[in-house]
Structures are given as structure tokens and as C-alpha cells.
Amino acid sequence: MTIASIQVEASTPKSGRITACRSCGGNHLDTILDLGNQPLANALLEPEQLGVLEPLFPLEVVLCQECGLLQVSEDVPPEILFGQDYPYFSSFIPALLAHSREHALDLIAERGLGADNLVVEIASNDGYLLKNFVEHGIPVLGIDPAGGPAKAAIEIGVPTVIDFFGKDVATKLVAEGKRASVMLANNVLAHVNDINYFVEGFAILLADDGIAEFEFPYVKDLIETCAFDTIYHEHFFYYSLAALEPLMGRHGLYLNDAKKLDIHGGSLRLRVSKTEGKSERLQKMQAEEDAMGLTGFDCYRDFGLRVSGIRDDLRKMLGAFREEGKTIAAYGAAAKGATLLNYADLPAGTISYVVDRNTHKVGKFMPGVRLPIRPVEELVTAPTDYLLILPWNFAEEIVAQQADYKKKGGTFLKAIPYPQEIEVG
Ligand SMILES: [Zn+2]
Q1: Contact 6/199 with Cβ under 8 angstroms?
Q2: Ligand 1 ion: residues within 5 Å (CB)
Q3: The domain 1-84+164-293: what is its CATH number?
Q4: Which of 64, 249, 264, 330 is least enclosed, having the fewest CB within 10 Å?
Q5: Residue limits of the Methyltransferase putative zinc binding domain (predicted)?
Q6: Whole-angstrom Cα distance, residue 243 to residue 49?
Q7: pLDDT digits over 228-264, tens only?
């Protein structure tokens, strides 16, 4: 046993591998992809933390043979997973505000919402979505455990319960005489470990003629684009419609409709209610899942193989550049970059540094791989031969922003969907 491993054991609270599916309880879990032992992808390191090895947890994705739900195999303790207090306020993201407003106005018109209705949002943050209903005189209630954003919501007139939503909170609200005409939960379904307790809360609080809508990243996009760098310990689930149907059905909720959204690089908006009535659009999407094989094992196994292929090709490509004496930097000190770099496990010195436009990240280090984060200006003052763009889904935008790097003779690279040089027109 090395000194390093002793330090890890001393500082790492117990995490555990699940033995049964978090949704259906089935205990046939097939490993689809093993991304190795990884730090928490968002946990950037301060310089003084470099002397201590940070906690690493297995990052492995398994498929339940019974219900077809893709999920991470490890339960990282919540005090570690959500222990860092990110003062994240949704209202600072303009694209999200426009998206939310449109959604709210559509719902008001379609459902004929008014003063007699109640709209409840789970993970309501600073009230960025619910305030659109308040403006139209529709009663709302936000529920969010993050105190800072919740207080900001209350200040702008969005009543908010500061708590984790689930069966207990829903039961309490119903005892107070509340029932929801509309329930909304955006980007939270993947983050809740005890998913049955959570969904049961919807079944309890939703009025008999009400609807609930969930927005979440769609596993079909994950598989098609090979976006394995969106897999983190915090994302317990990667949902297909096929896997959602038994989960919702267990709590008396029916899948009625689904819609593809462009936000967050490919999401789905799912509508459920207490009565059966599947839209044609939803039936078509489920047929597409069947055709793609999302209900079986082979499609996922193929995904796992493609991912390890990307890693091998990236190692080869960057290794060849280093042999030629070329230098390489990376762009974007975000969670997806951390997942990719830690999985790639490149030889030390392959990548010199990571640049980021966010000045709060500069001076810190990427978790696990411990690459220094430098100001984006370094690409011009001390350019490397190559720049690996980690947020590959924004590659075009970043290439346009960093035109000066190109003028200095730099070449842009990306790793997904396969490692390549980016042609600049
Ligand atoms: Zn299952």
C-alpha cells in the first residue's frame, strides 16, 4: 500500500456500489462503461490542496436488465456530492430565461391557467420560471433546498419551500389543502438518487386532472453523439422513454407526451398525468427507441466500445504530436473536461495547461489530472501548437472567439465524436 492510497482512505468517507436498480429494484446490472476512478468533476483544486490526494470514486455506468434504466453504479455520499455550496442563480443565464418564459406562456394558454390553479416547481432556484406565472396572477409554489437562490425567489414574490422534494413534502402540502394543476421539474430527475420517493411526491401532490412536466438530458442524444463526458457522479440516471414508463407507472402516472428540446445540448420534455392518453409524437419517439435498440443491451455495449475507442485514438493522436515536439493546451475548465481528461489518463506533460474565460477558475487546478488553469489570453501570449477544445459542442463558437490563436499558427482539436483537427474555414 502506498502513502498516497493511505491518504485517500483516511480522507474519503464510504461510498458504495449499488446492488440493485434504483428504479425497479432488479439486481441484474450489466456494466456498460467504466470511466475509472474519478474525482468529482466540478471540484476544482486550490493550490494549497495539491499536497493532498482528493477523494476518487468509481465512475461506472450500468444498465438494468429488468427496466432498461442506465445509471451510475456508485452512491457517493450526498454530503460530498452536494457539499460544495455553489451559489448558482439561473437568472444569470439569458438563454434559459427566454426558454422558460416561452414554456410558461405556452402552458398558461394551453391549460387555461388562472387564479384557481396552482403551479408547483421542483428545484425552482431563484424563481426564474415561476415568476412568469406570478405575472399572470397564477398562484405558484417553488420547492428548492438551496437557501440562497430560494430567498432570492421569495424576494421577487415567488413563495418557496426550502426543502428536498419527495413523498413527505408532498404529503404535508396536501394536508394543507394544496393540489397542483401543473408540476414542473427541470434538470432534477437525473440528480435524485431515491427516484421512487421523488416520483411518488408527484403522484401525491398532482391534482387528478393535472399534468407534470420533466426536462432532462435524453439518453438517445448521449448515445448518438457519444457524449460520455456528460457522465458524472452527480448524474445518477440517463433516461430513455422505455425506462421512464415503468418508473412513472409504478406511481400511477402515465407518459402522455414528449418533445425534443435544443437547450443543454439535447434534452427531452416529458409530460405525465394520472390518465392514459399517449400523443402520436410520443408513440413515434418510442418506436424510434425500439428501432435504435435503446430497450436492449447491444446498443449500450456498442456505446461503451465507441467510448473506449475515443480514448485510445486521443492518446495516439496527442502522443504523436508530443513525439514531434509539439505543445498542447486545453480549453474549458468545466465538468465535462474533467471527465474526459481523467478518463483519457494521458502521460504526464502531454497537456501543458487549461485555459478558461472565467477568472474565478484561473489559478486553480483541474481535479484529478491537476492541470493548472490559466487565463485565456495565454493562448496568444504563450501559444501552444495545439488546443484541445473540451466543450466540443461549442467548438464552433470557441474557434470564432479564439481567431487570434489561429493567427499565431495554432491548430484546434476536439475529442468527440472522435479525435480530430477542427478545420477552420
Ligand atoms: Zn431497473
Answers
A1: no
A2: 21, 23-24, 26, 64, 66-67, 69
A3: 3.40.50
A4: 249
A5: 21-82
A6: 41
A7: 999 999 999 999 999 999 999 999 999 999 999 876 6
